[in-house]
Amino acid sequence: MSQGVLRSLARSFVNGGNRGGGGGGGGGRYVLGTFEAEFGRRPGGVSCGVIFARRMLSSSATEPAPIDKEKKQSASAEEEEEKKKNGGGAVVPSSYWGISRPKITREDGTEWPWNCFMPWETYRADLSIDLEKHHAPKTFSDKFAYRTVKLLRVPTDIFFQRRYGCRAMMLETVAAVPGMVGGMLLHLRSLRKFEHSGGWVKALLEEAENERMHLMTMVELVKPKWYERLLVLSVQGVFFNAYFVLYLLSPKLAHRVVGYLEEEAIHSYTEYLKDINSGAIENIPAPAIAIDYWRLPKDATLKDVITVIRADEAHHRDVNHFASDIHFQGRKLKDSPAPLGYH
Ligand SMILES: [Fe+2]
Ligand SMILES: [Fe+2]
């Protein structure tokens, strides 16, 4: 009874709403189609009722035609087709807005399975980079940065010990923050001051994205437990804000801290590789995402993945120490071309 009243109220609301606007009709029909498909898929009276109400409010004045069996079958065939196109992921409805991803293939002609990165963002890691380079702390702020990072390593060593997979996964959740914070603040500065950033916005955001890809790779190898997820939440809350304030106060110190954090990351991945070489950690096949992202051979292993990630960390170390040095010399980042695409 009350559902009938609600329906007629919704119908009159929709009818009224559509009187003035002819342009929304097509959109309404598209949304309607989507919800019809959803309506058909979802069992349960309550959720169906909610969907029905949403469908009424989103549709045009025209009463929807009943969904016959044939239409349902053709819709599910289309869904299957879409599913195949999206590498078996969630179904993406054809877009009213005209947005669809063109067919992308690998060099060997096979279909590109990733939505999170594209073939032109992949690269071969430069493994010739010097892993031993170290910025010797001389000034007070350098010593402060160095000691802070060394101090942060103590609880990390105690918590993770030699569980390097877990350690790497957790640390990557932190490592992807500074680039985003620095990039965001430089972006805002560029807007505020009506000036170019010298490529540094892009360079720092590239670093953040690269670190996030390290994390996306590590989660294929190690599944985080509930308390580790909780730890990530708290650490992110604290670290994001602390780094944000630090970057506002002293970008020189902020980049130096990251430079030293990256030196520690190189050390951690070197220890990880030692355990793989000794057999303490099994040298399992590389995850598919890593093979495509770093253009690794199909038979690449965990050892290859850790080797390229370590090379990335060495590049981040250099970029951040370089940025800190620019500030130390009293110059601005925008006046020193950023190392774009530097992996
Ligand atoms: Fe990383
Ligand atoms: Fe890094």
Indicate the topology:
Layout: H1 2-19, H2 24-41, H3 45-58, H4 69-85, H5 140-160, H6 164-193, H7 200-221, H8 226-249, H9 251-278, H10 288-293, H11 302-328
Helix pairs in contact: 1-3, 2-3, 5-9, 6-7, 6-8, 6-9, 8-9, 9-11
This protein binds fe (ii) ion (2 copies).
Helicity level: 55-70%
Q: Total number of helical segments? A: 11
Oligomer: single chain
Based on secondary structure, the structural category is mainly alpha
According to CATH, what is the class of the largest domain?
A: Mainly Alpha
| Ions and ligands | fe (ii) ion
Quote the CATH topology of the largest domain. Answer: Ferritin
Strand content: under 5%
Number of strand elements: 0
CATH superfamily placement of the largest domain: Alternative oxidase
The chain-level mean pLDDT equals 80
Which radius of gyration do the C-alpha atoms yield?
A: 26 Å
Largest sheet: none
Series of H and E elements: HHHHHHHHHHH
Shape: globular
Write the CATH architecture name of the largest domain: Up-down Bundle
End-to-end C-alpha gap: 65 Å
Uncertain spans? 1-6, 8-68
For the record, the count of structural domains works out to 2
Subcellular location: Mitochondrion inner membrane
Enzyme class: oxidoreductase
GO molecular function: alternative oxidase activity; metal ion binding; superoxide-generating NADPH oxidase activity; ubiquinol:oxygen oxidoreductase activity
Membrane topology: Multi-pass membrane protein
